[in-house]
Amino acid sequence: MRAFLERIWFGGGGGGWLLAPLEALFVVVSTLRRWSYRLHIAPAIHPGRPVVVVGNLTVGGSGKTPIIVWLANALTARGLRVGVVSRGYGGLDAGPTEVMASSNPARVGDEPVLIARRTEARVVIGRDRVAAAVQLAPAVDVILSDDGLQHYRLARDLEIAVVDARRGFGNGHRLPRGPLRESIARLSSVAAVILNGEGEPGVSGIRSRLAPTQLRPLLGPERLQLSDWAGRRVHAVAGIGDPERFFRTLEAGQLQVIRHPKPDHAQLTERDVEFADGLPVVMTEKDAVKCLGFARPGMYYLEVSAAPEPVAGLALIDRIVDLVRNQKGSS
What we know:
Layout: H1 2-10, H2 20-38, E1 51-55, H3 64-77, E2 82-86, E3 97-99, H4 105-108, H5 110-118, E4 122-125, H6 129-136, E5 142-146, E6 158-164, E7 192-196, E8 206-217, E9 233-238, H7 243-252, E10 256-261, E11 281-284, H8 285-288, E12 299-308, H9 310-330
Parallel strand pairs: 1-5, 1-6, 2-4, 2-5, 6-7, 7-8, 9-10, 9-11, 11-12
Antiparallel strand pairs: 3-4, 8-12
């Protein structure tokens, strides 16, 4: 079903008109829900610390997690205690549950574990984001919400929307006829739009790219650059929202890629990463945290970091730091 919908959303496939009645229903329900919070009919709850939501308008990955990692590390470097709340998609724990670098991704989700591994932030997952944020608040200066742009029950001080610049907004329709959770006009109300990757999605914002930092084995201390494997043939496994983005990154490093796309947040097994030809297996870091229990030599992951435009990126960090200081000063 997901593959069928994505052909309609991003591939120009026909049949979308059949979903028009469901799209209309979705628009009505989501609009009523948003306005219920804007008019204070439904209460939004603030945890008592500045909340920065990093989300997107479309279903699927847009590169939010590397942006969260970048923000958390930049704010930590400025002396702030950073917390991250996440729903923990795909995990078994309902939460609120604190996530450590050693936590089991099957219980807490793959992205929260990745964030805990790559940052010094306190990470708490919970299907109730408000409860997760409230648990974090006493120990941090600022809370980053990984996704949740449409989770209006969690009151926020600043919103950042991440857009996949290559895929853009697909056919421009709302769910399920298109990939949009909200209309593109929603971007006019956020503090910053980050355009992830190459492409012209038709909106302006802070340009960012995913910069490969190193190729690392799941076992052992080896550190490689992509250029060290130029011309090498590898199996590439990616269980992310847009696997093609990962495959293109490897190919830009001159690797010869055998593609193995998986659904976003897929729970990988040994069978998913075992191949009879003995070629190396390269996966995303999000997938690697799920494979540590059956890691073997020859399995690698590509570590990447978000690299926003320096001037605009610094201005955004300054804005968040000022927000935190102003709220501290008024409390």
